[in-house]
Design a protein that fits this description.
The chain is of the alpha/beta class. The protein is built from 9 helices and 9 strands. Helices cover 40% and strands 17% of the residues. A 5-stranded parallel beta sheet has the order 2-3-1-4-5, sandwiched between helices. The protein has a 4-stranded parallel beta sheet with strand order 7-8-6-9, covered by helices on one side. The longest helix has 23 residues. The radius of gyration is 26 Å and the shape is elongated.
Length: 294
């Protein structure tokens, strides 16, 4: 089990660090009273391996309970329970700027100067910082930089391409463009099987329609160019810290062309070792229905 205690200064990025850990499959608990750490650790051990990556956020928000942290750490050590401490830090100047931008008060200086709260917090956290296994100074970090640093220290390097989840979504323009789409491709320029009597009853998931759509020269050119574009975009989206990508493929009714092409794109992405899945939003819709659907 990998058991991480996330702590550090208020405003140093603990929330974003925790989100990164959640994206990597960690079971995260925020602001757990330190006295409960031993009980929680024991519960995780009894999960028969179902919980094998855990992160606990412990900081001065716990008030007087924070003083129990070292007692709990001693208990874990005596039980030979392995844990790591991640400490998030930042310069006073950067912390003050972040608090002013967020218009939040420092938890140790609710009615006073932010710098006073920061000084007091540094004093309280000095000992736990000295015990930290990893210290990350986020003073010059953007969100994407922190996520990259978290992945470097706590991610699974064996599956680097699975950090971005890709959904290839077919839809019909007559029912509206999906509101969560990141990329939208209009494939209505491809000859429509709907107007071929022997193909109309089928969908793009059926071989007759699929073979017809993929045999078109327009489709071949589109798939080649789209693959090149996605292979360029996906690594750059990952670099910027994006965790989910929705690629929407639209035709008129969302039943023939978009379905066949969405399936083809999903297959291409999987062959390129990306974590892709396909979904068909409007494949079962009544073609005579024209209500907007988001």
């Amino acid at each position: 089990m990998r058991f991480i205690i996330v702590t550090g200064l208020s405003g140093a990025g603990k929330t974003e660090a925790t989100r990164s850990l959640e994206d990597m499959g960690y079971f995260c608990v925020d602001n757990l009273p330190p006295k409960l750490i031993p009980k929680f650790a024991e519960a995780c051990l009894q999960s028969d391996g179902k919980i094998n990556k855990v992160a606990l956020v412990i900081d001065i928000r716990g008030g007087i309970f924070f003083e129990d942290l070292f007692e709990s750490l001693v208990y874990l050590k005596n039980q030979d329970f392995q844990y790591e401490i991640l400490f998030l830090d930042a310069s006073d100047e950067k912390l003050v700027k972040r608090f002013k931008e967020s218009r939040r008060s420092h938890p140790l200086a609710a009615n006073g100067r932010i710098t006073t709260g920061i000084d007091e917090e540094r004093r309280k956290l000095r000992e736990v910082k000295d015990r930290a296994d990893i210290i990350i100074d986020t003073s010059k970090y953007e969100i994407r930089d922190l996520r990259e640093e978290m992945n470097k220290n706590y991610g699974d390097e064996k599956e680097p391409k699975k950090q971005l989840s890709i959904t290839v979504l077919s839809f019909g323009f007559k029912y509206g463009i999906p509101v969560d789409a990141d990329l939208v491709f209009d494939v209505r320029f491809i000859p429509n099987p709907f107007y071929i009597p022997e193909l109309k009853p089928y969908s793009g998931g059926d071989r007759p329609v699929r073979d017809y759509v993929l045999a078109q020269e327009e489709t071949k050119g589109f798939l080649t160019r789209t693959e090149d574009m996605l292979k360029f975009l996906i690594p750059n989206y990952k670099k910027e810290g994006k965790r989910q990508l929705i690629v929407a493929i639209g035709c008129t009714g969302g039943r023939h062309r978009s379905v066949a092409i969405a399936n083809a794109i999903e297959e291409i992405l999987c062959e390129d070792k990306f974590n892709a899945r396909v979904e068909h939003r409007d494949i079962g819709e009544d073609p005579n229905k024209g209500a907007k659907k988001l």
